[in-house]
Amino acid sequence: MPDFRTVTETFSVAPQIAPDDLAKAARLGFVKVINNRPDDEAPDQPSSAVMAAAARAAGLEYAYIPFRGLPGPDLVEAMTDAVEAADGPVLAFCRSGTRSITIWSLGQAQAGARSRQELIGLGAAAGYDLSGPLG
């Protein structure tokens, strides 16, 4: 059973998901999946190409925005653009979900869309501590 964690009505995160989880994501109303996990980070992880094909088969849009550590401004902008371009709810994933919620939160903070405290609260409600990245 995938661990989809709601952050807002239009944005959720998850630890690593399997290709089969994308059909469930589509049934739940997601329209786009964003993969923030670099290929070959772990031997058992599905590649971006496999995830992209599964997303397309499920009728989902797919974006690949991989990174390790804290993302730079170009990646934050790419993530923000990918989320904003979606015509409905977005599910982002990485190994634990931390990178996905962090990059989204940095974009929200930089755009002035949400306060630091609100983002920390949203992260905590989803099971993530954002006090460091947003410090």
Entry summary:
This protein has one domain (5-126): Protein tyrosine phosphatase superfamily (Protein-Tyrosine Phosphatase, Chain A, Alpha-Beta Complex), CATH 3.90.190. It is 41% helix and 15% strand. The chain is built from five helices and five strands.
CATH hierarchy: architecture? Alpha-Beta Complex
Which structural class should the secondary elements be placed in?
A: alpha/beta
Over the alpha carbons, how many angstroms does the gyration radius reach? 14 Å
SSE string: EEHEHEHEHH
Distance between the termini: 33 Å
Helix proportion of residues, in percent?
40-55%
Q: Can you count the helices?
A: 5
- The first-level CATH class is given as Alpha Beta
Key traits:
135 residues, alpha/beta, Protein-Tyrosine Phosphatase, Chain A, five-stranded mixed beta sheet, 5 helices
Description:
This protein has 135 residues and is of the alpha/beta class. It has one domain (5-126): Protein tyrosine phosphatase superfamily (Protein-Tyrosine Phosphatase, Chain A, Alpha-Beta Complex). The chain contains five helices and five strands. It has a five-stranded mixed beta sheet with strand order 1-2-5-3-4, with helices on both faces. Helix 2 (48-57) links the parallel strand 3 and strand 4. The N and C termini lie far apart (33 Å). The mean pLDDT is 96.
Helix-strand layout with pairing:
Elements: E1 5-8, E2 11-14, H1 21-27, E3 32-35, H2 48-57, E4 61-64, H3 73-85, E5 90-93, H4 98-111, H5 116-126
Parallel strand pairs: 2-5, 3-4, 3-5
Antiparallel strand pairs: 1-2
Helix pairs in contact: 3-4
